[in-house]
């Protein structure tokens, strides 16, 4: 109740004047009636204080002029009822003037105090209202994902708080006009926006807005913009981090292929696929430069809905072709395939709907090998960041090509060494057969002929000549065995099957053969298989402590498969002086694969698979 009374007394909006007049009369009447029992008992000054209370109430609620009127009426009522003689006006100038003066001064002072309190209360209420408004605007504007979407509700709330028809907050500088009054919102000298209110808004409202709302709005807009900038920066950083992580994953997948020695074609396809997935809706391609100044598409991926150019397509590098520009300059290039672009390749790409592209050179060990290109069918240009990502992948492409070239050169070098060794073996076997062996055979025949011409009685000479002839025959047989070990003549004459059977017959261990060859194979394949079986039989006899060896060979389709197993002690391993390293090198030179399974105590199994890339003449027959 006291709070409501105080709020009523300090209310900015005063009650109607009619109510004030009635209230004044009622208060004077009530005070007069209430003081009747005390007439003649208490002094006049004490009784006059009761009338002063009514003057204070009226002055505080209705202002000075009604308070003065109430003071005069109260003085008259007091004189009429409580100054002797009672029930008559007995006005004396000094006394009554003093009473009226006291009442008027009290009313005026009360009015002043009430107005002051009322203004302070109004100001406090306005400050509280403005603080609530600022808090709500901050809540709306600083928590909105998009600042512009929050300005409409914020403007409406501001208009409601200041009892305006409407209000608007703009993020650009807007001048005022006949309908709108404009308040610039600044951050120092930097424009942040404009607050617009109706042009007929009261001056006090304008002043309140200028003094109290505009500064807070400027701070809010500045903070909101900084928040948007930070949010955008974080979003971009997150997107860049996500893109970088995806790029690193793609690079790692391609690098894994390169490290595992994958074929260049597989690396090319992986690069174009990863680029297409990483860069989005762009076409990608790898082009290898040819000596005749053309390019070959070794791998490519087009945008969805675009006809893909087949792998292996030859491209002319004339005109405004992107790959031609890279071939001529050796540097990254950008190309547009509009109607002004000249050249055959540019026309073909234009027909496919490709509008522009970027490309970077692929440099392998200092030499320009080709180009990696990215193209688009959209009118917007390809971002510059694409070129940087493209360059990262081309380094892996160059590494894959260099690795493949190195492996090819190494394989070719090993093949040349093996071929030279085989040729030296063949030549040595031929020289032994055609030279030393034939000479020994001739000497043996001459010795036998000399023995036959001796007369009877020369028994000692005949025995000596017979021993010489027998020795020559033994030396000839030893040379024949040596020549078989160097290069088996049976392999050249009858093929792999007869050569393996001959090898099995001469083995120190029993050999069980199962051959399904059925035709002559390329010489290098037959020679390789022969030496694999020969080395395996030698190892089994020397190291394995085996009792039997099983040899299975079958030419199925385009693969010749060989399995050699024994029942020895096992534990065989490449690199322990068993000759298996040489076998592995020989097998790999013909594109084959060697696998050794040799657990300790369980024997050894050698598995060989060699591709048959040529068909020889039919064999004399298959052997089982």
Keywords:
disordered C terminus; 59% helix; 624 residues; EC 2.7.13.3; rod-shaped; transferase; two-component regulatory system; 4 domains; 5-stranded mixed β-sheet; histidine kinase; alpha+beta; Beta-Lactamase; 6-stranded antiparallel β-sheet
Q: Biggest sheet, open or closed, and with what strands and sense?
A: 6 strands, antiparallel
- Biggest sheet, spatial arrangement of strands: 6-5-4-9-8-7
Q: How many separate domains?
A: 4
Order of helices and strands: HHHHHHEEEHHEEEHEHEEHHHHEHEEHEE
Shape: rod-shaped
Distance between the termini: 122 Å
**Strands, total number:** 14
Say what the CATH topology of the largest domain is: Beta-Lactamase
Q: How is the quaternary structure best described?
A: single chain
Q: How much of the sequence is in beta strands?
A: 15-25%
Going by helix content, strand content and strand pairing, the class is alpha+beta
Low-confidence runs of at least 5 consecutive residues: 614-624
* CATH class type of the largest domain: Alpha Beta
Specify the CATH homologous superfamily of the largest domain.
Answer: GAF domain
User: What is the helix tally?
Assistant: 16
- Estimate the helix proportion, in percent: 55-70%
Protein name: histidine kinase
Domain Histidine kinase/HSP90-like ATPase: 524-614
Keywords: ATP-binding, Kinase, Membrane, Nucleotide-binding, Phosphoprotein, Transferase, Transmembrane, Transmembrane helix, Two-component regulatory system
GO molecular function: ATP binding; phosphorelay sensor kinase activity; protein dimerization activity
């Amino acid at each position: 109740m006291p709070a409501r009374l105080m709020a009523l007394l300090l209310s900015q909006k005063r009650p109607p004047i009619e109510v004030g007049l009635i209230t004044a009369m009622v208060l004077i009447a009530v005070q007069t009636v209430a003081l009747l029992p005390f007439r003649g008992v208490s002094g006049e000054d004490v009784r006059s204080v009761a009338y002063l209370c009514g003057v204070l109430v009226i002055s505080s609620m209705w202002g000075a002029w009604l308070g003065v009127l109430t003071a005069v009426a109260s003085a008259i009522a007091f004189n009429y009822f409580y100054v002797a003689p009672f029930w008559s006006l007995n006005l004396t100038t000094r006394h009554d003037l003093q009473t009226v003066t006291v009442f008027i001064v009290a009313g005026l002072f009360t009015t002043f105090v009430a107005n002051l309190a009322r203004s302070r209360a109004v100001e406090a209420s306005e400050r509280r209202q403005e603080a609530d408004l600022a808090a709500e605007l901050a809540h709306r504007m600083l928590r909105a994902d998009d600042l512009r979407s929050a300005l409409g509700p914020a403007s409406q709330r501001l208009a409601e708080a200041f009892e305006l028809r409407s209000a608007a907050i703009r993020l650009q500088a807007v001048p005022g006009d006949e309908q709108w009054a404009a308040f610039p919102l600044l951050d120092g000298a930097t424009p942040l926006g404009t607050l617009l209110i109706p042009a007929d808004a009261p001056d006090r409202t304008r002043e309140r807005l200028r003094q109290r709302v505009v500064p807070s709005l400027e701070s809010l807009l500045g903070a909101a913009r900084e928040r948007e900038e930070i949010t955008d920066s974080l979003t971009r950083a997150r997107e860049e981090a996500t893109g970088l992580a995806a790029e690193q994953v793609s690079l790692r997948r391609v690098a894994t292929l390169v490290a595992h020695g994958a074929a260049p074609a597989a690396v090319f396809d992986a690069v174009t696929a990863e680029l297409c997935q990483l860069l989005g809706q762009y076409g990608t391609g790898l082009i290898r430069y040819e000596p005749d100044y053309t390019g070959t598409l070794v791998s490519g991926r087009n945008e969805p809905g675009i006809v893909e150019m087949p792998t292996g397509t030859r491209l002319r590098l004339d005109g405004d072709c992107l790959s031609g520009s890279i071939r001529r300059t050796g540097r990254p290039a950008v190309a547009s395939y509009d109607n002004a672009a000249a050249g055959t390749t540019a026309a073909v790409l234009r027909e496919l709907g490709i509008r522009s592209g970027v490309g970077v050179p692929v440099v392998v060990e200092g030499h320009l090998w080709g180009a990696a290109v990215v193209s688009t069918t959209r009118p917007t240009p390809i971002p510059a960041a694409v070129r940087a990502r493209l360059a990262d992948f081309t380094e892996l492409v160059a590494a894959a090509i260099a690795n493949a070239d190195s492996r090819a050169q190494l394989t070719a070098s090993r093949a040349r060494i093996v071929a030279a060794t085989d040729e030296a073996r063949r030549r040595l076997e031929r020289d032994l057969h055609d030279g030393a062996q034939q000479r020994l055979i001739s000497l043996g025949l001459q010795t036998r002929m000399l023995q036959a011409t001796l007369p009877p009685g020369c028994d000692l000479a005949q025995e000596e000549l017979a021993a010489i002839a027998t020795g020559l025959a033994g030396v000839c047989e030893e040379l024949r065995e040596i020549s078989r070990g160097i290069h088996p003549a049976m392999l050249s004459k009858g093929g792999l099957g007869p050569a393996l059977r001959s090898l099995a017959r001469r083995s120190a261990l029993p050999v069980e053969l199962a051959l399904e060859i059925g035709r002559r194979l390329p010489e290098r394949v037959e020679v390789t298989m022969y030496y694999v079986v020969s080395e395996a039989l030698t190892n089994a006899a020397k190291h394995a402590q085996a009792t039997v060896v099983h040899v299975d060979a079958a030419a199925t389709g385009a693969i010749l498969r060989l399995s050699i197993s024994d029942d020895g002690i096992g534990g065989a391993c490449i690199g322990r002086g068993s000759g298996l390293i040489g076998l592995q090198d020989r097998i790999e030179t013909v594109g084959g694969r060697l696998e050794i399974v040799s657990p300790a105590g369980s024997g050894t199994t050698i598995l060989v698979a060699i591709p048959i890339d040529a068909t020889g003449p039919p064999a004399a027959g298959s052997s089982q």
